[in-house]
Structure formats: structure tokens, C-alpha cells
Amino acid sequence: MIYPFYNKNKKIHVEIFGEESSPAVLFLHGGPGESCYDFVYHQAKRLSKEMRIIAVDQRGVLRSEKIAEDEPFVLQDLIDDCEELRFQLRIKEWNVIGHSFGGYLALLYAAAYPKAISKIIFECPTFHFEWTSRNLLKRTASLFYKQGDYERAQECEALSVGSHCSEELFDHYIRLSELLGDERDKIYSPNPVITDDSLYTEMEWEQLWEGTEYHLEKLREEGRMFKPLIPQLANLTHPSLLIVGEFDPVTCKRHIQEYDKVPSRKKIVFKETGHTPHMEVPEKYGEVVAKFIKYGMI
């Protein structure tokens, strides 16, 4: 079901699956500027047998109304959208799954509205863009070496251990990773994953993605997303589950070490997977998520 959701004069794409009486689960996609499309394709039908899945294309992304070039937009808008959606759906409290940058959002949301959330699942999250960018640059370097491009590989390696700030590292990573072309996806996962995109034509996909870049550009300009959330992570009291892929470059070892200090925590590592366990091992992922949401176990 497509739910007609508006907040702050913007239409935001929301899909809902499952029975209203089932435990509610909000999915927050990553990016910034990706979409819930892949998660819905691989998980909505599976998870909605036991849960009420609510998936969102965040403000300004893909099927949501676009953000104009001169329109104000900040990170807080995404947090407020979550809470307004919960209010409109009359959900007392819900569970949240945050993938990648969505994990960053989930932690911010939990800190701002702690009573709105029951449990949190962090799937391959970042809580510190500097740590993540350095690790991504290392992975990018390894792919340049495989291509025989030693100059760019060495540039990535130098940046990964240099003194650049979080914003600079992020920008360098975006610039260099894009030079990998079709090989860029291998940064995130060793496993090719197929999602059926026939729901829209090629032209429709192009039109949907047009303008989405302002989502990232404006968050980058604001700069709040580069603030480390390690203090908020240390103060997290909600039951939480960290899902990581064995080869995921986003949730580096330092993230895991900090998460291991959190009370009421659980953790699972999916072997032979990268940054998208919900796509790479959909059945196992669905089983783990359902067990944790329903029983607090893994």
C-alpha cells in the first residue's frame, strides 16, 4: 500500500506492508540519497508475514517530491519526517531498521525521540563518517591496484591515513570511487545482487532519480552529518542489534569496538557478505530480523 504522507509541504513516498496489528518496523535507507526500493523488493513480502513494514524514500529522494535547488533542507528534516509519520499512522512506538547512513539517522532519531522506538537494528551502519571514509578509501585502493592503476591506488592509501577532516575524506572518496566506473559496486560487496527494476522503464528511472542529488548536496553543505555519533551510541539504552557483513567496508572495526560497549546489545556477522545483507542473504536476514523484533533474540 502506498500511504499518502505529507510533511512540511512535501510529499514523501511511503510503502506499507503487513497487518496493522503486527509489530511496526520503519526502514531507513542509506546513501545519503539511496532509496527503499531494493529493501522492499528483497524483504517486504518476507518480513510482512510477521511484521508491519513501513519503508520510506527519504525527503527529496527517488519517488518522493524533489527538493528544489534553492530550498532549505537539513538533517533534522529527516528526523522530523520519521516522527511525523509515526504520529500520522497513530503508532505508539515502533522498531527501526537503519541501513548504512540510515543507521546514522536511526541513532539520531532514537536520541531525539527515545519513547518513539522499541528496538533498533543497525545494518552495516556508519556512526562516524571519518572512520568510514578512511576504510572505503582503503577498499578503493585495492580495486585500483587490481586494475593496474597504481597512481590512484597510492593516492587512496595516502588519504586513508592522512590528516584530512571528515568532509574532505568523504569528498575525496566520492571523487576517486567514481573513477572505478562499473567496478565501483565491488567496493561494497563481492557478491553481485540482482534486483528486478522492471517496475519502471529506463526513462522513468532516469526521471525519478533526476534531482535526487540535492538531497546529498544540501546535507553535505550543512555538514551536520559529519559529526561523530559515538557519544550518542554510548548512551543508547534501547535493545539493539548490529548486523554486519564480513566484507562490509562501511562498518569498520572501530565502529564495532564502540558498539560492543553499548548495553542491551546484540551482534551478528553474516559470512561471505558485504554491505547489503538484506539483499545478499535475504532469507537468513529475514529470519534474524523477525526473531529479534518479536523476541529480542538472534
Gist of the model:
By secondary structure, the protein is of the alpha/beta class. The protein has helices spanning 37-47, 75-88, 101-112, 129-147, 150-161, 166-178, 202-209, 213-222, 230-234, 253-259, 277-280, 282-295; strands at residues 2-7, 10-17, 24-28, 52-56, 94-99, 117-123, 240-245, 265-270. Strand 5, helix 3 (101-112) and strand 6 (117-123) form a beta-alpha-beta unit.
Q: What CATH architecture of the largest domain do you see?
A: 3-Layer(aba) Sandwich
* Class from secondary-structure proportions: alpha/beta
The CATH first-level class of the largest domain comes to Alpha Beta
Q: What is the number of E strands?
A: 8
The major pleated sheet works out as: 8 strands, mixed
User: Overall 3D geometry?
Assistant: globular
Kindly state the percentage of residues in helix: 40-55%
DSSP helical segment count: 12
List the secondary-structure elements in sequence, H or E: EEEHEHEHEHHHHHHEHEHH
Protein name: Alpha/beta hydrolase
Pfam family, one: Abhydrolase_1
Family: Belongs to the peptidase S33 family.
InterPro entries: AB_hydrolase_1, AB_hydrolase_fold, AB_hydrolase_sf, Peptidase_S33
Characterize the structure shown.
The chain has 298 residues and is α/β, with parallel strands linked by helices. 43% of the residues lie in helices and 16% in strands. A hairpin with a 2-residue loop joins β1 and β2. The longest helix is centred in the middle third of the chain and has 19 residues. 43% of the residues are buried. Pfam families: Abhydrolase_1. GO terms for molecular function: aminopeptidase activity.
